[in-house]
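Sanity check. The docking grid for adenosine-5'-triphosphate depends on where the pocket ends up, so I'm generating a full predicted complex first rather than guessing from homology. Inputs follow.
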Amino acid sequence: PMTAAALQVSELTVGYGPVQALEGVDLEVPEGAVVAVLGGNGAGKTTLMRAVSRTLGFHGGAIRGGSVTFGGRRLDRLPPDKVVAAGVVQVPEGRRVFARMTVADNLRAGGLGARGGRRSAAAALTRVHELFPVLRERAGQPAGLLSGGEQQMLALGRALMGGPRLLLLDEPSLGLAPLMAERIAEAVREINAQGTSVLLVEQNAALALGVAVAAVVLEVGRVTLSGTAAELKGSDEVRHRYLGVV
Ligand code: ATP
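Predicted complex below; grid placement will be based on this.
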């Protein structure tokens, strides 16, 4: 490959007790790329994110085989806080913001523990406000009063405060109106253009393939298709099952 593989998932097998959720999954996110994971309900998309962020244990799951490396370093043996310290930050599905805390305090919480001290935290906040001006306008309001789309912006902004190298985005368009979903997609493009790699989990295949350079399709825990975004957009299987083309 031309570029160093930022994230490499190899032969990953994951279970929750007797439930086998992933089996032999291979996936690569080259440095600086956006790669999408497509698939229907229960395919294993969220499980894959949890395996990378090492939060699987909180949900009763465990890695049974394979490996996850980032920049050549094994992540699958690190605790979740060390994964974050390595620059890999997950934005969970359902945009869990701290509803009673102000928008400003939510963002501040995202910067806690980030390297670089106060000056880089101020620079990160400036970048987040440039990306999402509404978060500056609403800085003093409780996060719970924001609209769904604004809460997704806040969840993204909070993750950016730590200066991540790789963002794990779980269904960022879920429950959003098409226009707002497109604004979030645009923000993901911009975040990527500024140098952050992205692993994007989406049921909205059209949106994901508009942002990602490559994608894999998961079905019942296995990768059934993978390729560039252009290849997948041209695949009959993807067009029929995930893009709604008849
Ligand atoms: P969705 O979009 O519906 O969240 P998904 O593709 O993210 O789907 P997962 O949530 O990763 O799929 O689920 C993969 C499989 O693992 C499913 O069979 C699901 O029932 C099972 N599973 C997920 N979480 C748990 C859990 N905490 N305990 C037991 N089984 C689980």
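Relevant for the grid: The mean pLDDT is 91.
Also worth noting: The CA atoms of residues 3 and 188 lie 21 Å apart.
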